[in-house]
Write a structure and sequence with these properties.
This protein has about 80 residues and is an all-alpha fold. The protein has one domain: Orthogonal Bundle (Recoverin, domain 1). Helices cover about 55% and strands about 0% of the residues.
Length: about 80
Amino acid sequence: MKPQSLAALAALAFGLPALAVAQSSADANGDGVLTIEEVQAVLPDVDSDTFSAMDANGDGALDEAEIAVAQEAGLLPATDG
């Protein structure tokens, strides 16, 4: 397998759990990102400081990459499947 193909597969594999969370029932408005309100609806213990730590770009929402990093850091649970 070519290194480029392997890298693409790895990126896809790492992105799938984040995509699953963002598109799950936690994403109440279906916009593909999670706001603090959406996160707290399923994880009430997440406070604003923790959410801010996960929101690397400070836009008030967790995108796929931020969700993946938060999951790797143990700040969000990993998705099943």
